Amino acid sequence: MNTLVFDIETVPDVDFGRRYLALDELPDEDVAQAMFTLRRERAGHDFLPLHQHRVVAISCAMRSREGFRLWTLGDLEADEGELVSRFFDGIERFSPELVSWNGSGFDLPVLHYRALRHGISAPRYWEVGDADREFRYNNYLGRFHWRHIDLMDVLAGYQFRGVARLDEIAVLLGLPGKIGLSGDRVWDEWRAGRLGAIRDYCESDVLNTWLVYLHFEQLRGRLTAEEVSAEQALVERTLREDGRPHLVEFLEAWGRA
After folding, report:
1. 97-100 and 53-64 strand pairing
2. Quick one: which of 48, 102, 209, 228 is 20 to 30 A from 4 by CA?
3. Cα separation of 32 and 99, whole Å?
4. Where along the chain do its domains lie?
């Protein structure tokens, strides 16, 4: 089966905020600040509700019989509808096993709302056995199914107190962890017009997630230590051949430059 690791980066949906809060004359930055302020008043923090996020990057790593591939959907000019459509089109085409870190709690619900917003159809993703019996007891929506593995959720034993950050588990395993940006800086980078840096950061999170996943596959007996090493070597070769600066930086942080 094809395995697809994914991660998204988001910014406030200021178009929603402008309409919902009747702030027609305000610029984006002021609308976003109003959204953050309202959220702090209601929840005590400024992390916006998931339906108020706009997707600006979706990065993926695919392991298939053909090898290992890392990329970010669309180009710098692609709009949100194209990014979300491409993500679900990939599921429609390949029916991959999905792997994420907090995908059940963040990435996928955000993608649900944005797909709804853009009128995107994703029947394979929403299949639960009505048209394909194989999806009855193993689909993308079931929390305890394996067609989507949220590593954060699974490794925590589905317990909130067990939840850990991706960068901390990556460092625990000798992996690079965060490089360059962090999630709380994405909005600032977006306002500064540095979408390329956001996409690079998203790819580094995907790489960390995939490499953690390899250890998880060893944990549950699906890979041997030798097979994990071989998969890591494949990632190393792929990044070295790609040669983009943020991937070279990842190799250096990994001790494989």
Report:
1. unpaired
2. 48
3. 31
4. 3-254
Cross-strand pairs, 71: 60
- Cα separation, 130 vs 197, whole angstroms: 42
Q: Cα–Cα distance between 241 and 235 in angstroms, integer?
A: 10
Specify whether the backbone of 45 is left (phi greater than 0), alpha (psi in -120 to 50) or beta. Answer: beta
Residue 223 DSSP label: S
Strand ranges across the sheet with 97-100 = 67-72, 53-64, 3-12, 97-100, 148-150
The neighbour count for residue 81, using CB atoms within 10 Å, is 15
Residue pointed to by tokens 């905020």: 17
Residue count of the chain: 257
Tell me how crowded residue 83 is: count the other CB atoms within 10 A of its CB: 20
pLDDT tens digits, one per residue of 181-216: 777 789 999 999 999 999 999 999 999 999 999 999
Which fold does the domain 3-254 belong to in CATH?
Answer: Nucleotidyltransferase; domain 5 (3.30.420)
Give residue-wise pLDDT tens across range 80-137.
Answer: 999 999 999 999 999 999 999 999 999 999 999 999 999 999 999 999 999 999 999 9
Distance (Å, rounded) from C-alpha 187 to C-alpha 194? 10
The C-alpha atoms of residue 238 and residue 219 are separated, in whole angstroms, by 24
DSSP letters spanning 24-61: TTS-HHHHHHHHHHHHHHHHSS----GGGEEEEEEEEE
